[in-house]
Specification:
The chain is an alpha+beta fold and 168 residues long. It has helices at 89-99, 104-108, 112-128, 135-150, 152-165; strands at 16-19, 26-30, 35-41. Helix 3 (112-128) packs antiparallel against helix 4. The longest helix is centred in the C-terminal third of the chain and has 17 residues, at 112-128.
């Protein structure tokens, strides 16, 4: 069996970590053409010795020997942005039908001012109905509620666009 070895270019050293001859106990990164400024402690070559016997009970033992981390190690993972979940039209309809007098569908869609206005119009109308003038406010709140039911999908789409544009 004849094996032919391909000769490498003279002086060609592959990229990697190598012992630093100027500083014993350190290694330096060779990028294949030149030394970089990246240095790290020299990795142990043999098996890691056990410095102390592990405890029989209690918390797990700390690492017994230092093991260098890779050069590009980040101590913390990159933060994952939290985005609020999108709104659903079924939930909006359900809140409008069951809790419409409290403006729950408006609060659900993020329209706090409209929710407070609806509560003031609806319950203020009921409070003033003993004087005979609150029925106009109740009628206005009822018409507003019907309009909300008819435009619920559009309101949900608007709320979702707002959540996508400003996710936090």
């Amino acid at each position: 069996m004849n094996m032919t070895l391909v000769p490498q270019q003279p002086g060609h050293i592959p990229a990697g970590w190598y012992p630093n001859p100027q500083r014993p106990g350190q290694q330096q990164y060779w990028d294949g053409t030149a030394w970089t400024s990246a240095v790290a402690p020299l990795a142990p070559t043999g098996p890691m010795p056990m410095l102390a016997a592990p405890p029989q009970y209690g918390a797990p033992a700390a690492p017994s020997a230092y093991a260098p981390m890779p050069y590009n190690h980040q101590p913390y993972p990159a933060p994952v942005p939290y985005a609020r979940p999108l709104k659903e039209s079924g939930t909006g309809y359900l809140l409008a039908i069951l809790l419409g007098g409290f403006g729950a569908h408006q609060f659900y869609l993020g329209n706090v001012g409209a929710g407070i206005g609806f509560i003031a119009l609806w319950w203020g109308g009921w409070a003033l109905s003993v004087f005979g003038i609150g029925f106009v406010a109740i009628l206005a709140a009822f018409v507003w509620w019907i309009i909300d039911l008819c435009t619920m999908q559009s309101q949900v789409d608007t709320a979702n666009r707002r959540l996508i544009a400003y996710p936090y």
